[in-house]
Write a structure and sequence with these properties.
By secondary structure, the chain is of the alpha/beta class. The protein is 43% helix and 14% strand. The chain contains 14 helices and 9 strands. The strands form 2 sheets. The chain has a 7-stranded mixed sheet, sandwiched between helices. A two-stranded antiparallel ribbon has the order 6-7. The longest helix is centred in the C-terminal third of the chain and has 17 residues. The radius of gyration is 20 Å and the shape is globular. The protein starts with a helix and ends with a strand.
Length: 312
């Protein structure tokens, strides 16, 4: 079967997230999570030939498929691919001579492609090296972290990023086991941690454990904070920020930035006691996928869309 943009990565909340951008003809937009190109394709379709879209992705797979045209949308002179982590958004916009943008889209979390690729170590469904790097060219792997970090640090990772109550017990046993033999693969890892999870919650808790490792490997929370700060600075008055989140950690950060302009959620007030924030929410409530989309794309079940507009 040919790999298409849809099979490589099914775009979540496609219509709702692009509607949220309020695309203006001739505008400048950024898709900081290019992936399979599904969201970018829709932005380009609405943008027409006079605007410009910058698509960010740090994964070489996305760039290679784009160069081959393998299932990805037709792109022309009004599209620029940037192979980089989106935390460097501001640097790259400066490089391209862009001082302001009309909108930014972010579909956070791991893509369908990464979960379904048995060689990358993102999923506990496959025997694979414990890698989990979005950018395979640099950084420490999940195996490096499991085998080298302190017991205390491992416990913090599992508790903070996976919200696992038995994080300390898991970390303790991992340190004991790695003292006898290095933990290299997903199966090595599962053999150690499986006894800690009740069968009725096993898949859910295992997913949280893998999520925690992935977040640490890719420094996802730090990158998200940096990107949102850059987006806040770059957006024009009236510009839109459209962000899809998948877990409470990233959603809390996005919610705080849209509410207050900072990741801590601290709202400042002016002399008259009015809230002094850079954004105004476009929707009072988060948007979630309808039942039909959740049935077709299980990944969408935890998705939340938040949209905000830069104040004039």
């Amino acid at each position: 079967m040919a790999v298409t943009a849809e099979t490589y990565h099914v775009p979540v909340l496609l219509t709702e997230s692009i509607d949220g951008l309020g695309i203006k003809s001739g505008g400048i937009y950024v898709d900081v999570t290019f992936g399979g190109g599904g969201h970018s394709e829709e932005i380009l379709r609405r943008l027409g030939g006079t605007g410009h879209l910058y698509g960010f992705d740090q994964d070489a797979d996305a760039e290679e498929r784009l160069c081959r045209g393998n299932g990805l949308p037709e792109v022309g002179e009004n599209f620029t691919f940037v192979r980089s982590n989106f935390r460097y958004l501001k640097n790259w916009m400066r490089y391209y001579g862009v001082s302001q943008i009309d909108g930014l889209l972010a579909d956070l979390g791991v893509s369908s492609h990464h979960l379904d690729d048995p060689t990358r170590g993102f999923s506990f469904r496959y025997e694979a090296p414990l890698d989990m790097r979005m950018n395979k060219r640099a950084g420490r792997t999940a195996a490096d972290i499991i085998n080298e970090d302190s017991e205390e640090r491992l416990a913090d990772i599992f508790y903070l990023y996976g919200e696992l109550k038995n994080a300390r017990r898991i970390a303790k046993v991992l340190v004991e086991v790695r003292g006898q033999k290095r933990i290299e693969t997903t199966q090595d890892f599962l053999h150690v941690v499986e006894p800690f999870f009740r069968r009725e919650r096993e898949k859910k808790d295992m997913a949280r454990l893998f999520q925690a490792l992935r977040i640490e490997v890719n420094h996802e929370m730090d990158a998200l904070r940096d990107m949102l700060k850059a987006a806040t600075d770059l957006l024009k008055p009236g510009g839109r920020l459209s962000v899809i989140t998948y877990h409470s950690l990233e959603d809390r950060i996005v919610k705080n930035v849209m509410k207050s302009g900072n990741v801590e959620g601290k709202v400042e007030k002016d002399f008259f006691g009015r809230m002094d924030t850079p954004f105004e929410l476009v929707h009072n409530k988060v948007i979630v996928p309808n039942e039909e989309e959740q049935q077709k794309n299980p990944r969408s079940r935890s998705a939340k869309l938040r949209v905000a507009e830069k104040k004039c």
